Amino acid sequence: MKKRARKQLVRFIVNSVGSFICCSLILGISMLLFFHGLNMTEEMMKRRALLTFSNIIFLSFLFTAQDLLRSYLGEKRQVKRIMKGVESITRGDFSTRIEPFHPLELFNQYDEIIDGINRMAAELESNESLKKDFISNVSHELKPPLATISAYCEILQDPTLSEEERKERISMILKSVRKLSLLVTNILRLNKLENQEISIREVSFDLSARLADSILSFADKCEEKGVGIEADVKDDVYITSDPDLLDMAWNNLIANAVKFTDRGGRISVSLMEEESEVKVVVSDTGCGISPLAIGHIYDRFYQGDTSHKTEGNGLGLALVKRILEMTEGQIEVESQEGKGSSFTITLPKNS
């Protein structure tokens, strides 16, 4: 940007010097013509002086008019092109891009405006694409549980259905309802986080105790699935951050570890304290993540392992990522297919 500004200044100076030289030549020639006639009579000298200064005024007016006309036509053309592009964007065509008038190194103020409009259009196009993908993904996620609920409700209307079959169908309906509830809850949470409708409540709290509570809350689920869970949490680790938001992060990571770890596998959660930061590591011996999927795991609704699709909605890691952005934390993942995954969260002690 500074380099471009310097080039604009050089161009302005060159144009100014050129105009100055032209005016100087005109004045010089006119004065030479005037003084050339100094050996004339007084009457002729007066006429020559009047003619000379009339020529100067005329030529000055001519150059001024030419410069004004050139500037007017040039600015009008530039404004017209900009307004045409803006009108196209206003109508909803966010793929519109306005062609600059000069190369990048010779940008003027209109080219700067065009560059800003083009960047705005690119951002709007990206947001529009995300919105369409979001609506498509939500619709796709809503259909299966709604179809399940509808189908089992129709079956329940059969008077010949046994009590055992009735309970089984009701259980499937409740499972679908819980999935819908989780989906809606996560969508609302993510929307609030992205729109900054949830403010950070920074307090000093015992991270060790909060993390231990999160681990204990999954003990029954791990036992039911036949998955071992172990903790290596250092005591009395205090940080300043939002404990409720971070609880959501731990719960999502541990829930994912449980979901992707088969019977007989193990999950481990550890907390390490360093001088100015803390690290929380959630590891599992589950199915792991492919190298291709790792680049998308924080995308909304993305699920790399479709075999577990019915157990989630692909919003958990997107929530975790946004929470850590708000709390100045970082997340890293290491994974091998068939061997498991390890998520490491780093948080400052005082955010």
3D architecture notes:
The chain is an alpha+beta fold and 351 residues long. Helix content is 61%, strand content 13%. It has helices at 2-36, 42-90, 109-156, 163-194, 207-217, 219-225, 243-259, 291-294, 316-326; strands at 203-206, 228-233, 238-241, 266-273, 277-284, 330-336, 340-348. Helix 4 (163-194) packs parallel to helix 9. The protein is elongated, with a radius of gyration of 36 Å. Residues 306-313 have low confidence and may be disordered.
List keywords for this structure.
351 residues; alpha+beta; five-stranded mixed sheet; two-stranded antiparallel ribbon; 7 strands
Ordered list of secondary-structure elements with their pairings:
Layout: H1 2-36, H2 42-90, H3 109-156, H4 163-194, E1 203-206, H5 207-217, H6 219-225, E2 228-233, E3 238-241, H7 243-259, E4 266-273, E5 277-284, H8 291-294, H9 316-326, E6 330-336, E7 340-348
Parallel strand pairs: 2-4
Antiparallel strand pairs: 1-3, 4-5, 5-7, 6-7
Question: What is the N-to-C order of secondary-structure elements (H for helix, E for strand)?
Answer: HHHHEHHEEHEEHHEE
Q: What Rg do the Cα atoms give?
A: 36 Å
Q: Which blocks of ≥5 consecutive residues have pLDDT under 50?
A: 306-313
Helix count from the secondary structure assignment: 9
The helix/strand class is: alpha+beta
* DSSP strand count: 7
* Biggest beta-sheet profile: 5 strands, mixed
How much of the polypeptide forms β-strand, as a percent range?
5-15%
Mean pLDDT: 77
Give the helix proportion (percent range): 55-70%
Shape: elongated
